[in-house]
Amino acid sequence: MCKRWGGSYRLSASPLCAFAWPRTGYQDVGEKKYKRMTRALKPDLEHYAQQKAKLGDLVYPTADSVAHADLVPLEQSRVEKLAELQRQQDAARLNRHKRKRYDPNAEVDYINAPNAIFNEKISKAFDAYTREIKANLERGTAL
Predict the structure, then answer these.
(1) Is 4 helix (H, G, I), strand (E, B) or coil?
(2) Residues near 17 by Cβ (< 8 Å), separated by ≥ 6?
(3) What distance separates the 2 farthest-apart alpha carbons in the chain?
(4) In the structure, what pLDDT confidence band is assigned to residue 69 with cuts at 50, 70 and 90?
(5) Given a cut of 70, is residue 34 above it in pLDDT?
(6) Domain ranges for the chain
(7) C-alpha distance from residue 21 to each of 3, 9, 128, 134, 136 (Å)
(8) What pTM value is reported for the model?
(9) What residues pair up with 8 in beta bridges, in sequence order?
(10) d(CA 135, CA 119)
(11) Cis geometry, peptide bond prior to residue 22 (ω within 30 degrees of 0)
């Protein structure tokens, strides 16, 4: 928690103090996401040691190595796991941003965006009473 002490704010270890300098809330969120993602992708150290013994510098080339990354064989299961994690992130992103979708087949009964919002509010309250009147107006049989 941030505590006012001696005329300035003192930063403590609480996540409630995300606004205090030098860290911002976005930095904390990014760091949490990075840690969560790296926990999900646990390395297989035995497999890494086997590859390093067999391939040498090809596993993690340095600036002086001339090898290409295409020479390192990839396990399809690891690629599928990474792809599945990416799909999960995309699905979570879509669920987080629930925007109203534009329906091209919907009836247009507004002249601008504020009028559309007003009409939606009115229709929630009075649609049950005005449905028959609207149908008669469209057919041309209104009184």
Answers:
(1) strand
(2) 1, 2, 11
(3) 90
(4) low
(5) yes
(6) 3-60+73-96, 112-143
(7) 13, 9, 55, 59, 64
(8) 0.42
(9) 5
(10) 17
(11) yes
